[in-house]
Amino acid sequence: MKNNKGFTLIELLVVVAIIGLLSSIISVALNTSRMRARDTRRVSDLKQMKSGLDIYYANGNGYPDKAVWDANVGKRMKCGTVDTLQIPTDPLSPYAYTYTSSGTSTTGCGGTVWNNFEIEFYIENKAKYYIMNLDGNIREKVSGTTVSFDQLLK
User: Smallest Cα–Cα separation from 90: which of 41, 141, 133, 129?
Assistant: First the structure.
């Protein structure tokens, strides 16, 4: 009489296949959650940048020059002695918040200020670039379609 203790090769392969399937499902769900979290942070960053730029405008009669913005990415930006905003970095490289100043220039905040700006940013769950203007309005970069902050996260 044979005493069979242990598992057969087929049983072990079935268990390994089930574990692999479950781990791939969990991995996809986790990556989706991380992507949505980064997009939520981007929307929060944009709202904070808009508020900070409004403070900068109120103190300096204009929006910062692109060179001033670029020199302060990841740091606190001041208008004179007033802290206006912490310029954030995008949560995932190689994406970045791209600031552009435009319109009419004048002097303020110890340098050149402008009456217009745009910030370009990327939303992962839409796989598209968007642009926010000085009014806080957002449009898709390619088509120009206007969207809201809420629509970016759906």
Answer: 41
